[in-house]
Amino acid sequence: MGEESAGGAVGVGDAVLLAPLTEDTFLHNLQLRYKHDIIYTYAGGAVISVNPCRRLALYSAELARAYVARAPYQLPPHVYAVAATAYRCVRDRRQPQCIVVTGESGSGKTEAARVCLQCAVVAGGGGASAAAGAGVGLTAAGTLLEAFGHAATLRNHNASRFGKLLDVELDFRGDPAGGHVTHYLLEKSRVTGVAEGERNFHVFYQLLAGADPHLLKRLKLQRNAGSYRILRSGSPVWSDAPHTHVAPTTDGDEQHFAFTTAAMRTVGLEGTSGGVLRMLAFILKLGNVEFVPAPHIDGSLAARASNYYEVSEACALVGVDEEALLGVLGAAPPRSRTPPVGSPPLLEEPHHDEGVCGPANGEGAAWAAAARDRLLATLYSRLFVWLVGAVNDHIQPRDLARRPTLAILDMYGLECLERNALEQLVINYAAERVQHIVTGVARREQELYEREGLPWQRIPFADDRQEPLADLLDNGPDSVVGTLRECSARGLPDSAFVQRLGRRRDPRLLPLPPHLFQIQHFGGPITYSASGIVDKNRDGVCARAAAVLRAAREPLLRLLFPDGPSPRRPAALACRQRALLAALSQRLAGGPPPRLVRCLRADAALRPRHFDAHLIRHQIRTQSIMEMVQIRRAGWCEAMCARELVARYIVLKARSARSTSGSPVRVARRLVRALPLPAAEFAYGRTKVFIRSPRTLWELEALRWARVVRLVTVVQRAWRRHRERAHARRQHQAQKTIARAWRRHKAECTQEVSEEHNESCVVKVCTQSITCGNMSQKQQRAHAAAASRRTAWAATTIQYHYVQWLRRRYLTTLWSRLPAHHMSPLCAAWPLCPAPRLLGSLDTLLQRIHHRWRCHKYRLSFDQTARNRMREKVTASILFKDRKQNYPRSVAHPFVGDYVRLRASAAWRRACAVAAPHRPHPDHYVVFADVVGKVTRSNGRVRPALAVVSTSALLLLEARTLRVKRRVPAPDVYRLSLSPFADDVLVVHVRACPGPEMEPDADTGVQWSGGAGGTAGCLFAASGEAGARTGDLVLQTCHVLELATKLFLVVQNAVGAPPHVNIAAEFEANFGQQIVTISFVATGGAVAGSSGSSARLVRRGSRMDVLV
Questions:
Q1: 103 assigned ligand-binding residue
Q2: Is 662 labelled as part of a ligand binding site?
Q3: Over the stretch 9-50, which tens digit does the pLDDT of each residue have?
Q4: Does the annotation place 104 within a ligand binding site?
Q5: Residue 565 forms part of a structural domain
Q6: Which residues belong to any copy of the TH1 domain (predicted)?
């Protein structure tokens, strides 16, 4: 096998074409393609994906649409190909499909499932708005569940800690109509136990990193994640070598929090998002509660909370009685002298006695800490289940119509820790069941070939002669799950569970008394600890603890703990997982074969461009990938029932040649032979027809689609002919009615005007009189009424058709009558309406719609700079429109910002580099820079200065030397004051900081207005002028509205709240040691001595007059 084929492709795109097909050639082909960043390889109808451990530009909406529109194998291997094939089967053949994504932890299963969902949404949601809304809801649901159900582990930075089956319902057009999420066991023990180098669930870190200061203050949280016990790592748990440990990343939590909150709004959780965040804060705060031993009088030990303030703050968030909560946890409140006796905090099933939550000897600090951890894990697990239910309520279709579904299964991978408990047993049990489903597809396929009488040499699997391990785990009362259920129901100890495992007598199940047992999984042997496994399997909650949380003021917390105990014993954790997996197995076994995406982990440490051949070979063997490739190479890609094939493709034959006599297989054979397809691509069994290549199936569907299009065209042509004929008949009848009415009207007019027919008129009148004389008065009235009705109907018909013609001509000619510059939003020209009485309202509506459309097109042409300028202009309009006289003159002038080109100044860049050599300086980005007049507060004189507004502060510099004269941090600006006149004066009100914070910096001489916050922003050294420049700033500039607007936005972005904008003719300002009243006086003309300025300032004691 060469390095590159003749066409320039690297390796072989489809593994079934390898010659020879061995494990070594297969592995070499994967490695060769991986080195060239080609991570996908076909294996027949399946796709093998090797995790690149870095981002590659392989995904886009246009590429997904291309895979949906093109035939299989016409484009390079991609996971889009599997998703597109499944999507076309659902859309065209109305068959439910399932995409199963398998692989170890860290192999990229979550990303592959997300890409499959993206392909389905893009392929079907590009049309109607309803479909687009359903697609957005499905995507938002994935984002939300990823935040609450994923965590960073040593093997995977975004490991899914729960299994997920997403069903996407497609309507007859192929557009997403809704969906449903089925979740499998969440690893809730991670909430209180995080291994070294790992992280808890993503949402905790996103909340602390992305929440604004006001939200953190309301939730009583701190920004530092290390302040919370459940977010601090513990001891290492992975059994791999130390060099395989991967430190999880913390980048992007702030941005991901915005995505998570947006997803909550999308799925309709706007009203409850605050409750969800309070629940997370409650878990974080309660996790910090520490317990210390508190001795009884009789010498026994109890527990007491050492940091009661954490309990108080946590309970205040959700409205829980703190003393009652500490009581059920086994810790005495600080005001009680002795801890509560006989109230240890073990969590049990709700059918137990209300007053006893555990054994009487469970007192102590360790017992209270264990109860706290179990309560936190249960609380988070119920919150996650509630979120899944809320997501399902939002994304489910609005009607109850039955539609075919496209399912995407993302299940756990097999994992092995140093200490494997019940959670790892259930996770690996699910991985075993999925592996059994995948290999079962290949086994059933071989059985089908043999049953249909096809020539077939069976390809053996490694465990063909043994009972499936999945059945060993869950089939029968003596299985692992059955034994665990029996021990949980009878309340037997953990050692009894280990002893009872030996009844199965299977070499793959090895009990290791008293508290260990080993299972030989498909990926290797794994040893489990049975300590506490029976108690964990019960998965109950103490009735007293539930009652305390049920009495909370938080509605969401009350919803998680509903009223009343259940009359039935709650299902054990392993039994619930067994029921879900049994339903999944039954569904996949009874439907079409699933589409497979086999994910492989290239490197144990997730290092990019590292290909561990030994690790890949181990995954190929344990996942039976080579057997799957060999079956696909020798077998067929599709098996269709002969009756279904004839019923679907009989339209390809002419009506005269359609014959259904004989067996269905013979009819299907005659049908296929008449098609322009190779005969070698088909094989015929006893009841089914087998198709060799997916491309042949595509061509067969393309032939049927072309035939259906022709038939639909014939039907449309016949319908249009019928419609036009009926319309012509109605028009002919209307024409005759109009002609009769017109002739009658013309005859009446002729009788009245013409004088040369007077005699005939007299005769006609006499004749009519004689005729009328023979008619009764009632008949005459009926005759006149009928004539009047016919005339009115004719007039109405004529008017209706005239109005329709007028509207049609108006609409068809409107575009050509628009002015040449009609695309400009400033264009007010509009063609005259030809008939204002009939078309006036329509003309007004179209003019308004056209204006909104061209404004939309104008906004779409903006780049980021133009959008920022438009935002500034809109902000200026909100602030100064109808409030400032010179605002109309500023509308047509764009905001330039840097009028002195300070950003391009080498001195400015050099000064910023000197001030912050290793990081971007906070004043580096310039928003506004111009030479302004700084008003001297003592006498009102104006001195030039360079005003610079950065993203963090307002600076006044010397224009030549760029020496900082004053720096005002953005958080210190709380008000901007202007007059309603057409002047150019702006007053910037700065918060006063008494004491030493008002002193200039001892080293630089620069005077700060905000205390400690200013020293960090020092640009470069200045000297002198210390102590006198405190208080508010009075500036005079010809760009006063632009300066005020930009400063307004900078303060809003820095603080989170906008400063107050005061527009009045008189207001007060702080001039350091004195409060001065600034009054604006309109003089009605140019002010003498103003030197071209629009205003002159005069200081008189405690007043400063501005003559405008």
A1: yes
A2: no
A3: 688 888 888 888 899 999 999 999 999 999 999 987 889 999
A4: yes
A5: yes
A6: 884-1108
